[in-house]
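Hey all, sorry for the wall of text incoming. These are the two entities for the joint prediction.
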Amino acid sequence: MTVLLAATAAALFGIGTYLVLQRKLSRIIIGIALLSHGANVLMVGSGRRGRAPIVGNGDVDSLADPLPQALALTSIVISFGVTALLLALAYRSWLLTSDDEVQDDLEDERIAHRGAPDDDLADSDELAWIEHDPNGEEAAP
Amino acid sequence: MTALVTLPVLLPLVGAALSILSGRSRRMQRTIALSTLTAVLAMSVALLVEVDRHGPVSVQAGGWSAPVGITLIADRFSAIMLVVASVMLLSVLVYAIGQPGAERNHVGFQSIYLVLAAGVAAAFLTGDLFNLFVSIEMMLTASYVLITLGGRLEQVRSGMTYVVISLLASVLFVAMLAFVYASTGTVNMADLAGKVGDLPGGLRSALAVLMLVVFGIKAAIFPLFFWLPDSYPTAPSPVTAIFAGLLTKVGVYAIIRTQTLLFPDDTRPTTLLLVLAAATMLVGVLGAIAQGDVKRILSFQIISHIGYMIMGLGLFTVGGLAAAVLYTVHHIVAKTGLFLSGGLIEHAGGSSRLTRLGGMVRTAPVLAVLFLVPALSLIGLPPFSGFVAKFALVDAASERSSYGVMAVALLVSLLTMYSLMKIWISVFWSPATEPVPDGAAPGRAAAEPLGGPPLMVAPTAVLAALTVAIGLAAGPLYDLSLRAAADLLEPSVYLEVVGG
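and here's what came out:
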C-alpha cells in the first residue's frame, strides 16, 4: 500500500515537472495541479495506515493516523482555490493576447540587448516592439 | 494577555469580511481597514512590551494541547516583526488611499489587503509548521490577487510567473511537511525541536536543505530569486511597496525560525548559509546596477539585502542573529519607504524609467528628501538605521573571523550606493534624456508643492522619519535584538511555554 502511494506520488511529480517545463500556460496549469496532487498523496502516505479512524471502529492502534489526512484535506482545498485563480489568470491572458504561450520578460531582453555591439543599428527594429506602451496595451509581435 | 496573540490574526479577517459586505461605500471600506490596522498596531505594540517583560505568550487554539492542536506563540522575535509589519501595513494603506488610480478603488482591494495582513500576522505568530504553510498560503493568495488587480497585460504576464513559482514552492512545502511528519510524527515546531535531533544525520540534512529551498524561494535567496525582479515592478506602487517590505521577510523569518529552533547546534549549515548570503548580496546588487528603471533597481536591491539577513543567521552567534533581526527591521522600513517614494517619483514624473525622468530636485524638492533619506539609510550611512544594522552585522562577522563574507558585505554596500546614485543622478539632478510619452503629465510635479497628494507624501515621510529614529534609538533597539537573538539560540523558554 505504502509503496503504491509512493509510486503514485513519484509518477505525479514526474509528469507534473515535465508539464511545468512547457511553454504553454494550459500545460503549466495542469502540471501544477498534478504536482500538488503528488504532494497531497505524499502527505496522506506519511501517516500510519490502518482502518478508518472513527471512534468505535476497533482498537486505536489498528486505526489509520487521521492527522496527515486532515492536513492533506486542508492543502487540497488550498490548491483547489489557487488553481481556480490560475485558470482565471490564464483565461485573462488568453483574452489579452489570444495565445497561451508564456512570454519572456521584456525589460530583461532590453537590458540583454543593450550591451550588444551593434546596439543602435541591427537591433533597433527588433527592439521597437519591446518598447513599452505607456498604457500597457502591447501587441504581440 | 492571550487575546493579544489571536486578535492580530482574527481582527483583519473580520475586517475583510465587513469590508466585502460594505462594498458599496468606499469610505466605509477605508474606515474599516484603517481602524482594523490601527487596532492591530496597538495590540502588537502591547504584545511586544508584554513579551519583552514576561517572556513568550502562547495560545492553544480550540483547547487542544500542544502537539495536536494549533499553537500560536509570540516571542520577542515574532513580536518585533509583528510591530514593524503593522506599521508598514498601516502606512502603505494610507498611501494607497491617497493615490489616485483605478486599482485602489477596486471593490476588493481593502478586504484583500486585510487578508494579506492576517496572513502576515499568522505567519509570525504560528508555532506549528503546517499552520505556517496555511498562513503563508493565505498571504500569498492575497498577494496573487493584489499583483494582478487591474488585469493589464503586463500584470497578467508577470503575475503568472509569480503565481506559478509560488505554487511550486507551496508544493515543495507540502512535500517537506509530509517528510517531516513521516520521520517524526509531528509538525508542531516546539515538539519537532526535540525530535529532529534524534533523526539520522542524512535525513536531518535533507530536511534542513528542503526547508531552506522552500523558504528560500519565498525569501528570494541566491539561486531562487529570479522571479522577484520580474514580477514586483509591474504591480501598483503601494502593492509593490508592501510586497517588498513584508513578503520576502516572511520567508526570512521562516528560515531564521526553522534553522534556529529545529536543528541542534552542531548540525547547522553555517558555511552553506554564508556562501548563499554572499552570492545573494553580490548577484542582487549587480542586477540592480544593470537596470534602467527605478522600480526594477529597487527590486534587485531587495534580493541583495536579503543576503545581509541570511549572513547574520549564518553566523549563528547571538551577535549575528541580533544583527539579522535589526537588519530585517531596518530593511523593512527603509525599503518600503524607498518604494513609496519611487511611487511618488512615478506619479510626479509620469514614468519610472530613468531616461524619462530628470531635474526633479527643482520640481519636487520634498520628494528628493523623501527619497534620499531611506536611500542613504539603505547604503548604511550614519545616523540612519542602515548604519547601525550594518555595523552590528560586520561586528558580528569579525568576532567570528568570517572575513570573506564581511568583505563581500562591505563591497556590496559600495555597489548599493552606486546603484542608488544612478537613480539619484538621473532622476533628480540631470535633465530627462527621453521625452515623456503622452498620457503622462510632466507638469504635475509643479502643480503639487509636496510632489504628490498629501496622503501619499505623509506615510512616506513617516517611514523616512522612522529610519532616522531607528538610527537614533539604536542602543535600546540593539539590546532588544540581542535579547530576541538569545531567545532564538536558547529556545528552552519557548519550548516550555508551548509544552505548558
